[in-house]
Specification:
single chain, eight-stranded mixed beta sheet, binds adenosine-5'-diphosphate, binds aspartic acid, binds magnesium ion
């Protein structure tokens, strides 16, 4: 069985975590000696991308010294971890790569700070450093442990458009490169080690796929290589029945359909980047979520059909800090073309809308990305009254059973009787119901729903 194994930030957070990755990969090689080796995709070490984002903010704010300090702290952290994993000449080579990378970056950061600006293109060059460094380290650590492997520069493989900070893959071009540069390593019996999240345009300019995008990279490479399974190794046992940061005792969901997993990821289940499922669906490749701290746990298996879960609902998700926009126009709403005009404004400012509800005189939408909110609002005000409410959240219940059991909806609403609901919407797929409420009410809403639909099952 051919697999791609993606290890997230916490799974490569330090030398100990990287050693666990080595063990997991070695065991796989030992268990399947006659199979092609796995492809390994890694994220930046935990929190590194956040620190790089902070560097960019400092540079844009002309705080050159503070920005330089973060870069040198990051280099020191990487070198310390490298020294714990790799020895001798190999360590010298690795340290030289890291030093060159971070020193070049420091030079660029100085220039950006002098200009007081970090463009999206510059930001991609900055953020890419995290995955470039971690993947080189993991490759060197594998080699130090006698695992035949080679580092592959993902920027030469993953071809994207030029939508910096949120690039989309060109699957045809990426497929050709993947088979050429990654497939050839596999044919030699080597484990290719690659950074997730990063790619480059056809002209060779570095791009990134958006925060959390390493899952997406793994799915893209996996689809291009037609693997039998895409494995997402992380710091929890799999997809849980709710976000463990909000509900204290979520349970593992053993099986999910692609559609359920997409809904959960889209509505905030951070364990999976929302686009991960797309390449998997295109090639019908199962995705498995696994815990790198507890590799013996079976995790969550995501397949086209799902195999059914015993519970009534599959899981809950929440997306916090969203903004609700109410657009009211007594005069225009029913007029031909009003909705088109309205959504054209969102399209023009590249602001995607998550939940939409309509009444006779108003349309309400939620948005997550508020980068262009001011532009959106002022353009909407040209033809409608606009009211904006920040600090809102979406709570979403997901399950194939929602299609078959109409009482689930009313029972969910009843269990939320203490929470003021702002909007409620059921998607056409009828696999999810979304509630829009105040962000401050998320813990209460999530715990009430979880108690109602999941905790009782545990007791029985
Ligand atoms: P990685 O660094 O491995 O990509 P992430 O931090 O991106 O890991 O995703 C894992 C985290 O997702 C978990 O630690 C958990 O806090 C969060 N999470 C949110 N919702 C869920 C959910 N429904 N199931 C599992 N994890 C979830
Ligand atoms: N390192 C990137 C991030 O933190 C990508 C990823 O971890 O998936 O967003
Ligand atoms: Mg992630």
């Amino acid at each position: 069985m051919n697999v791609i194994m993606k290890f997230g930030g916490t799974s490569v957070a330090d030398a100990e975590a990287m050693s666990r990755v080595i063990d997991i990969v070695r065991q796989r090689l030992q268990r399947y000696p006659d199979h092609r080796p796995p492809v390994v995709v890694v994220s930046a070490m935990s929190k590194v991308t956040d620190r790089l984002v902070e560097t960019g903010r400092l540079a844009a704010d002309r705080q050159a010294k503070a920005a330089a300090q973060v870069v040198s702290d990051l280099l020191a952290r990487h070198v310390t971890v490298a020294a714990a994993l790799v020895k001798g000449d190999a360590l010298d080579t690795l340290t030289a790569h890291l030093a060159t990378g971070f020193t070049e970056l420091a030079g660029q950061v100085r220039e950006w700070a002098a200009q007081g600006e970090v463009s999206p293109r510059a930001s991609d060059a900055l953020l890419a450093m995290g995955e470039l460094a971690s993947s080189r380290m993991v490759a060197a650590a594998f080699a130090a442990q006698g695992i035949p492997c080679s580092w592959v520069d993902s920027r030469q493989v993953l071809v994207t458009d030029n939508e910096h900070t949120n690039a989309l893959p060109d699957m045809d071009a990426t497929g050709v490169k993947t088979r050429e540069l990654v497939g050839s390593r596999l044919d030699l019996g080597e484990v290719p080690v690659m950074g997730g999240f990063i790619g480059s345009t056809a002209d060779g300019v570095t791009t990134t796929l958006g925060r959390g995008g390493s899952d997406y990279s793994a799915a893209i490479f996996g689809a291009c290589l037609d693997v039998d399974e895409i494995q997402i190794w992380t710091d929890v046992d799999g997809m849980l029945t709710a976000d463990p940061r909000v509900v204290s005792d979520p349970r593992l969901v053993p099986q999910l359909s692609f559609a359920e997993a997409s809904e959960l990821a889209y509505f905030g289940a951070k364990v999976l980047h929302p686009s991960t499922i797309l390449p998997a669906v295109a090639k019908n490749i199962p995705v498995r979520i696994l815990n790198s701290r507890r590799p013996e746990v079976k995790g969550t298996m995501i397949t086209a059909e799902g195999r059914g879960n015993p519970g009534e609902l599959t899981a809950l998700a929440c997306k916090r800090g969203v903004t609700v926009i109410d657009i009211t126009s007594t005069r225009m709403l029913m007029a031909h073309g009003f909705l088109r005009r309205l959504f054209e404004v969102f399209e023009r400012f590249k602001t995607s809308v998550d939940v939409v509800t309509t009444s006779e005189v108003s349309v309400s939408v939620t948005v997550d990305n508020t980068r262009r909110l001011e532009d959106v609002i002022s353009n909407l005000r040209n033809f409608a009254e606009v009211n904006v409410e920040k600090d809102m959240a979406i709570v979403c219940i997901v399950g194939e059973n929602l299609r078959f059991d109409p009482t689930l909806f009313s029972r969910a609403v009843t269990s939320l009787d203490r929470v003021p609901l702002r909007l409620v919407s059921q998607a056409a797929s009828r696999r999810n119901i979304t509630f829009v409420l105040r962000d401050a009410d998320v813990p209460e809403a999530m715990n009430s729903l979880h108690d109602r639909f999941f905790a009782a099952k545990l007791a029985s």
